[in-house]
Amino acid sequence: MSLTILITGASSGFGALSARALALTGHTVYAGIRETQGRNAPQVEALKTYATHHKVALHAVELDVQSETSAQAAVDQVIAAQGQLDVLIHNAGHMVFGPAEAFIPEQYAQLYDVNVIGTQRVNRAALPQLRKQGQGLVLWVGSSSHRGGTPPYLAPYFAAKAAMDALAVSYAGELARWGIETSIIVPGAFTKGTNHFAHSGRPADTKREQAYAQGAYAGFEQEVLDGLATCEPEDADVSTVAQAIVDIVGSPYGHRPFRVHVDPSSDGCEVVNAVADRIRAEFLRRIGLSDVLSPRLIPAPQESSHG
């Protein structure tokens, strides 16, 4: 079945790979990209070329998750063109790298705005349509970082991803009775194949950053990067994340997995999440809310007939 899909942060990385993979599977995909007529214009052209070459329904749509107006306009555009929205994929995100102390508070707030509040803006734009339909999927692209090995120098990113995961888990219970499924995909720290590390933000307080670089933690950044690279198998392939997303979307309604890990480095997040998700399910059963562990299919309204 061909589904209408909107994915945020689709100019590069997991988002671009997933948008193309989903379109190849036969879905109608809207790749949310900000500054489509500015700095990301080349990415939009590449997407159009790909769609034409492969004869797939892959479209770019202007979407900046930091703008409520932009989020609403993107969702409105998809619904106007397709009459529905079946899958919303929260992929937009930004990473930073450096000593936690050297990031000013405003940087923490900005990262939280992209990785967490951005999902809320898009949810508020898209969920009325999914609730109206009585069926749909919200798929969150998380990170093993907040519950796995959690190496130093990634604190703001880890904190934001932890918050996003907590939001996704809460939303799961609040959307199930509307017939909306939740899935969370948890990629590991892929150091090759994406621009996450290459384009990661740096601390604004360069003086404090240098205090770490020249003091007790001299050379530590490279230690972290080398250590992560060592843990990652040579055959680690970021396209496996896109394929996992394709598999989740393609699973039968009502049987999509709540959480899927794609972590070649095996940083331990899968073990921790297994316990956390089991405890959540057990507690919801204890308080009489077991029904929100899976979506409730809401029958479409039947047209009345008069003989």
The stretches of 5 or more residues where confidence is low (pLDDT under 50) are 303-307
Alpha-carbon distance between the two ends: 34 Å
**Main β-sheet, in a few words?**
7 strands, parallel
Q: Tell me roughly what share of residues is in helical segments.
A: 40-55%
Q: Which strand order spans the largest sheet, edge to edge or round the barrel?
A: 3-2-1-4-5-6-7
- Per DSSP, what share of the residues sits in E-state strands of 2 or more residues? 5-15%
Kindly describe this structure:
There is one protein chain. The chain is an alpha/beta fold. Helix content is 46%, strand content 12%. It is built from nine helices and seven strands. A seven-stranded parallel beta sheet has the order 3-2-1-4-5-6-7, sandwiched between helices. Helix 1 (13-24) packs parallel to helix 2 (41-54), helix 1 packs across helix 8 and helix 3 runs parallel beside helix 4. The protein is globular, with a radius of gyration of 20 Å. The two termini are 34 Å apart.
